[in-house]
Amino acid sequence: MTCTTSQILTFLWRANGSPEPSVANPFTNVSDDAYYAKAAVWAHESGPVSGTVFDGSYTVYPSFPEAGSTVTVTPKPDDGYTVDTVTVTDSKGNTVAVTKGENGKYTYVQPSCAVTFKPVSGAFDCPRDESCPMAASDDLSLGAWYHDGVHYCIDEDIMKGVDDGVFAPDISTSRAMIAVMLWRLDGSPDMDGQNLGYPYADVNPDSWYTDAVYWARLNGVVTGYDAEHFGTDDAVTREQLAAMLFRYAKYKGIDMLKYESTDLSSFADAAYISDYALSAVKWACGAGIIKGAGDEASLSPKAKPQEPKSRSCL
């Protein structure tokens, strides 16, 4: 059993409160009756924090803010476009005060309910032709539902293909890939001059993932199987993914105590969760990020996630 992109999208959609999409399903290859249809439309429409897609992209920090925390929105307009202002409206229709800062950043204080932010501009406008950064990969479809996410990740150097003209959207997600994604999310910290500790025997010192793997170890985000083995090429399991996201959230200072006592007794295979991952799986289930697999009666903690169409959706 595997964890697919549609399942990962559904996890993120549930973590955001399972909001109803405000636009019609634009995807010809996603049935309205599919269990992940609303999640796919939500992801296309808004991303992890509900917003309006515009001519460019945007980042939001933190992605899942608590009430009273300061949220920073950074629009990144495409060439030829500008952002004049950002408006924020809570789920009750009230306008939230926004402060324009330096370097194109906007901040607001998170209310006790969900918000929608809107960089004032048009819709994301990629001609989906040879000018699109995805066009260099023969195995990516410019008309696919994952276009915006992959376009952004390639353009921002968050993800790269595995070879010239090959992005490999259907390959399994390895432990090294997860480390690199989280390292890049943290701004790709420079590891030069850092005491990396005892080297892993299975980590090439000059590999594309080397800095990310040792950054992950030094910050307690992703640890190896033991002092000598990281398992770079091993596909992550559901419980490993939960543990990695849990540790990254703690590393970023998010309060994790709320869901660490979640009751997992309703899942038939809860006893098979490894001790190291138990708190993480409880947190992920309690926060609605992960739910039961298949018939919802099991967690399948040892299942290995894959990302068909495409890896960037993680």
Secondary structure topology:
Layout: H1 5-15, H2 37-45, E1 56-61, E2 70-77, E3 86-90, E4 95-96, E5 99-100, E6 106-109, E7 115-119, H3 147-155, H4 175-185, H5 210-218, H6 238-251, H7 278-286
Helix pairs in contact: 1-2, 4-5, 6-7
Low-confidence parts, pLDDT < 50 over ≥5 residues? 47-54, 306-314
Summarize the amount of helix as a percent range. 10-25%
Number of helical stretches of at least 4 residues? 7
The count of DSSP E runs of length 2 or more, i.e. the number of strands, is 7
Helix-strand category: alpha+beta
User: Mean pLDDT score, rounded?
Assistant: 75
Shape: globular
Report on the architecture of this protein.
The chain has 314 residues and is an alpha+beta fold. 23% of the residues lie in helices and 10% in strands. The protein has seven helices and seven strands; from the N terminus they run ααβββββββααααα. The protein has helices spanning 5-15, 37-45, 147-155, 175-185, 210-218, 238-251, 278-286; strands at residues 56-61, 70-77, 86-90, 95-96, 99-100, 106-109, 115-119. Strand 3 and strand 4 (95-96) form a beta hairpin. Helix 1 (5-15) crosses helix 2, helix 4 crosses helix 5 (210-218) and helix 6 crosses helix 7. It is globular and about 50 Å long.
